[in-house]
Amino acid sequence: MASLSTDPLEPIPVLLLTGFLGSGKTTLLSDALRSVLGPDTGVVINEFGTVAVDHDLVQVGRSEVMQTTTGCLCCHAGSDVEESLTKIVEAMGPDGERRLTLMVVETTGLADPAPVVNQMRAFPPPAEGRGFQLAGVITTVDAVTALASLDGYLEASKQIAFADAVVLTKTDLLSEGDRASFDALIEEIRALNPTVAVHDRHADDFDLHAVFSPRGYDVAARGQDVLGWLALEDALAPDTSKPGHAAHNTGDSRHANGVQSFVLTSDTPLTRDGFYRFLRTLQLSAGPKLLRMKGLVSFTEEPGQPYSVHQVQHLLSMPKALGEWPSTDRRSRLVFIVEGLDPKPLRELFEATVHDTGSFFDSIMPERFGKWLKSGKDRT
Amino acid sequence: MTFNNPLAPKARAIPQKLREIKAWVRDLFELDDDTAVTVSELACRDEGCPDIETVIGLLTAGHPSEVHRLHKPLADVERDDVAALAMVSRLAKAADPHG
Known about the structure:
The structure holds two protein chains of two kinds.
Chain A: E1 12-19, H1 25-35, E2 41-45, H2 54-57, E3 66-67, H3 80-91, H4 96-99, E4 102-106, H5 113-121, E5 132-142, H6 146-152, H7 154-162, E6 165-169, H8 179-192, E7 197-200, H9 208-211, H10 224-236, E8 259-266, H11 272-285, E9 290-298, E10 306-312, E11 315-321, E12 332-339, H12 343-354, H13 358-363, H14 366-375
Parallel strand pairs in A: 1-4, 1-5, 2-3, 2-4, 5-6, 6-7
Antiparallel strand pairs in A: 8-12, 9-10, 9-12, 10-11
Helix pairs in contact in A: 5-10, 6-7, 11-12, 11-14
Chain B: H1 14-28, E1 35-43, E2 52-60, E3 66-70, H2 79-95
Antiparallel strand pairs in B: 1-2, 2-3
């Protein structure tokens, strides 16, 4: 377990865990909670969209784990982070504040870290109690898809630039043919953040304890870009003295136009064959516009056995059996985060899966489905 | 001879574009080394605002931040856009040197 300060006079250290969609934030956090973090670690999980599933995917059975309101911390001005942290302290009971050794805040994959870090740097000294202090920024970077994410989304660059610890994930999926693109990724990380510590999640000497140990987070050490982005956030802060401009740039729309989230659910288990055809069709047709899909499903062949499923752009992970349902909600549910894709065809495809209408799949070719998915027009 | 497919999707290559814009700003605004340039991209749904805008900050210690907005995504910003901004900025300063 991490040897952390429990001095009741010191602020509670807070680690910010960020990283682009599907880069393995929740998996890394789950591993840390199971192996190196003590039971008195509070967790805030923030999710993009209207339905949260990440808190169900953190398999540690901890009552302290807390889900924030859905949406994105970087899109809400004010003290959302501090409010969430304070709620954890309150949920841990009368001596919770004294016992807490660490807080971890996991952002959405689309979070711009600049406003979140600005909030966390500005934690005011509390009138009473310990208060909170930013103690490090961990960024997960998917070794397979990160270059594409960096090419298309400024948030991915900022997440790396703000980190004092980068954790490369999915390096076990790289082949010899990926060497050149992996070298290019390392070069880009170094260009964005020359002094960051880079850890390989699958290296023999990977030290999860070190990654999740609180340290002093030094903004100045992150370089001119980070200082500039933080200063720009301050300059763009809402000027409440001007009527009608109080919400400018602080609403729920910081992210690129066209990024949206929706959820597909089924009250009944799915056939395994039908669901695999659903995944296959999705993989062949959606392309990089499918930023992220994640969720929990159950199959008619194994009632009562939940599976977690993940897809990041073209990279599909096969369903993985979980020990038990993480909550009383036994519905199969998939959360999608897409850019410029029409949800309607996906809903129809999922309905066909739920009702096992194989004829639907027989009637479509993945490439035709892909065109339909991207056009938003009726399938004819 | 290499073949460039005109139908191939255009890479947005954000990090490279970010560095280009900063270099254009430094050059066209004729900034000295005391001024830091920062570039970001924000979306806004306020009435009258574009969906996505590129925000350029000129930050000099001891002076108010100078913020310029381009009403287009960062990936679409060209050198001419920055040149127009720089010209407007110079004209505004000439008209009101104490502003």
